[in-house]
Known about the structure:
The chain is built from five helices and twelve strands. The chain is an alpha+beta fold. β4 (57-65) and β5 form a beta hairpin.
Amino acid sequence: MSEEAEAMPREVHGKVKWFDPAKGFGFILADEGGSDILLHANVLRNYGQSSVADGTGITVKVQNTQRGVQAVEVVRIEPPAGVAFPLGEDQALATPEEIAARPLEPARVKWFDKGKGFGFANVFGRPEDVFIHIEVLRMSGFADLAAGEAVCLRIIEGKRGRMAVQVVSWEAAARK
């Protein structure tokens, strides 16, 4: 392969092997095989997310470097396939298509505690908090949320108030 061909980013699809926001990086396993692909936190942030869950499908543009293959741009992040989302405490599970039919509401994360397994966000223009459970976060392809992070939520009315059934990064929602 020529040096010019190596310098040109190419698109690769794979799954997140692991990502640690505290360390600022993680790795992707490409569907086509080969060595692990480095995913730096800055590349993920440019996509609009501060974290990504292990096992999440991801499409990235990669480049060969002296240190190995590195992601230079995130193209798409897909929640785990075949996952049904809970539609509240007493309700049946919903398919991704049923969830996708709900409107996206712009919100800002108030706080999220990974250890407790939940947090809250404020939807712009509404006074009440929206509950976000860690399982909904994981099913949406996130590992964690940071206070102040801008996101879009698909929301239902639960017994105890509004709760998120899907979290989408602000930038990903803006691209759609």
